[in-house]
Amino acid sequence: METVFDFSMIAPCGINCGTCYAFQRTKNRCVGCLTPEGNKPRHCNLCSIKNCGHHPQNGSNHCYDCEIFPCKRLKQLDKRYRSKYHSSLIQNLKDLKVMGEDLYMEREKVRCRCKVCDAVICIHAKECQTCKTPLPELI
Ligand SMILES: [Zn+2]
Hints:
By secondary structure, the protein is mainly α. It has one domain. Helix content is 32%, strand content 0%. The chain is globular and about 40 Å long. Bound molecules: zinc ion. Residues 114, 116-117, 119, 128, 130-131, 133 line the site of zinc ion.
């Protein structure tokens, strides 16, 4: 699953689509938020963050470049991901801004893997899908 660690997998909101259940499943697999054509879950096609009118005008696809970052919608999503899905999206975006694409993806390669068996994790799961080690509260 090499594409997990491609920058094109990082959605505007800071989710790494490569760590999403919809990308990792074999049946009806999602192509990732920023891939223009292809299968995506309905809630992703309707996403108010992806389809937001505030998108930065400087070519960046990511919310950290927005004049109203972090907006209310992103804060709500961030809260849900912090409490349920092992990930702070706002912190991801702040880190991405500071680190730049390449360094950020190098970090993803390390932190999006199970510390025990090295399998790519799914942030929507409670445990590693391969060895069943519980995931930390925040990766
Ligand atoms: Zn594991």
